[in-house]
From TrEMBL:
Pfam families recorded: NYN
GO MF, one annotated term: RNA nuclease activity
Domain of life (superkingdom): Bacteria
Taxonomic source organism: Asticcacaulis endophyticus
Name of the protein this chain belongs to: NYN domain-containing protein
Residue ranges occupied by any NYN domain in the UniProt entry: 28-179
UniProt-listed InterPro entries: NYN
Length: 250
């Protein structure tokens, strides 16, 4: 048998029926989400159901077949001003944790800003720790050699320093810049990225969390069921609910 035929047989034996390489021959991928950067991009679609997003499934949709997603990190922050939004945000965090996503949470602070010309003042809510949490997560995971390929999901140029550190300190690790949907890739991060891809709406539609997610925190405690907020129901369910309400009111 020729070497060419032997190699073809070997390549074929290393693939599953779906064409995926066996896990121990695949590169390890880690996905790092700039939470609010992604949120605002998704929010621009004005389709709230897309916010009930399974970030692990999305990462798998972005990674090619020769990579296996080993780690997913989501960096966000709680905004305590609205109890309803706070509850929805916490439920989403718990649902992501149930899917194996690592959540690194920061917080918001209130600051006073104003106009020097007219003297008008207003309060601003400023996110704290989000960028630092993302940078430290990538740096620590690279030091611990947890990935071969790093997917950085952001359009924020503040993360160019993180990208530079990763490529200077670990030049053999691949950095992929992932633009949130509808956002241009940041030119400063592109200087250090080995590749660039963009999240499309089709990726979001195919990566939604189910209506209910079970989150088991402790061994002997029954799992908590996190239900999708009504505001995030898909259009078909919202239409059915609207029709049912009309019939009941009739």
């Amino acid at each position: 048998m020729s070497n060419h035929n032997k190699n073809r047989r070997l390549d074929k034996s290393l693939e599953t029926e779906k064409g995926w390489s066996l896990p121990f021959f695949r590169k390890r991928a880690a996905i790092y989400y700039d939470g609010f950067n992604l949120y605002h991009a998704v929010d621009a679609y004005k389709r709230p159901y897309l916010k009930w997003l399974d970030l692990k499934a999305l990462g798998r949709a972005l990674a090619p077949a020769d990579e296996v997603v080993k780690r997913v990190v989501w960096c966000s922050a709680f905004r305590p001003q609205s109890k309803t939004k706070m509850k929805r945000h916490d439920d989403y965090m718990q649902a992501l944790k149930a899917r194996g996503v690592v959540a690194r949470m920061g917080h918001f602070v209130s600051a006073l800003d104003g106009c020097n010309s007219c003297g008008h003042t207003w309060h601003l809510s400023i996110e704290k720790q989000g960028d630092v949490n993302l940078a430290l997560s990538i740096a620590a995971d690279a030091e611990d050699n947890l990935f071969d390929v790093c997917y950085l999901v952001t359009a924020d140029g503040d993360h160019a320093a993180t990208a530079r550190y990763l490529k200077e300190r670990f030049p053999k690790k691949k950095l992929v810049l992932v633009s949130p949907p509808g956002r241009f890739p940041n030119k400063h991060i592109l200087l250090y990225a080995d590749a660039h891809i963009e999240i499309e709406r089709e990726h979001l539609e195919a990566s939604l969390l189910p209506q209910a997610v079970r989150h088991k925190k402790k061994l002997l405690v029954p799992p908590k069921v996190i239900e999708r907020p009504e505001a995030y129901d898909p259009p078909e369910l919202r239409e059915k609910g609207h029709l049912k309400m009309i019939v009941n009111n009739g």
